[in-house]
Fold this protein.
Amino acid sequence: MTQTPTHQPAARAAEATARFTVPAKHPMVTVLGSGDALLRVIEKAFPATDIHVRGNEISATGDEAEVQLVQRLFDEMMLVLRTGQPLTEDAVERSIAMLRGSEDGGGTSPAQVLTQNILSNRGKTIRPKTLNQKRYVDAIDQHTIVFGIGPAGTGKTYLAMAKAVQALQSKQVNRIILTRPAVEAGERLGFLPGTLYEKIDPYLRPLYDALHDMLDPDSIPRLLSAGTIEVAPLAYMRGRTLNDAFIILDEAQNTNPEQMKMFLTRLGFESKIVITGDVTQVDLPGGTKSGLRQVQEILDGVDDVHFSRLTSQDVVRHKLVGRIVDAYERFDDRNGK
């Protein structure tokens, strides 16, 4: 006689409950958000976990691992609030991503990332928003030459400029030099200074715009005219030795190998160089090799040179920008680019 096999029900994951009490000095709206906006972000990220709020006590019930993550999240949120910094939906989402291990923390907590201030100006504070951004900022402190490589919107140029202004204000350097290869304007034309800004300004405008976020706008013309801040196309770096300066080369994917070598060898004493670029957005004429792509092979392993790589997870513009970057990467992979 054939016996019908009996099916044992699958063992359920161990359930657990965690309770978290918000100290009375922190109003619940700072933890849950206006209209419970932050709480909704958390509930969406942990759909299988029951999260309840009663008074100033928050409880979470569900899978033990998920409940532990929720507990850690609220601990991190409280650490941020203790610094006086408000929580945003974006900050909570990034904290969850870091806690879930989508970024290998290496012992760095979300609160450490989100409360590291670089620069404050007119009530606005510039700080890293992701773990990779924090690593990038720390690398700028620790190395003489740093490459920030990643897609648009990852803050690679903006954070480098904030570090440059910080270094100038703390008198670590005497001047800031901001440069870009002006591919469309024609690097070889050798513009005279009188016509330079008329023709080159559209390519340097993003650097000016960032400066206006970081400094009193009234001081910028004075700093530019004194040479304390210089904004110029890459061709103007040739033949110079740049001492006691914080030098940023932006859009470096549009340098050819000769330009990259020329720029790197401008380094003088007591100076720091940050080179930023996106190797997926090269505007060079067909057949011209990108100096940024090549330099990664040449300088790999060289002491005091650091490569920081940012990804779509580090995009700090509209959330859709990160999804657009990922979609283009998938398209390029399918088409062998």
Observations:
- The first strand starts at residue 15 and ends at 21.
- The mean pLDDT is 86.
- The two ends are 63 Å apart (CA to CA).
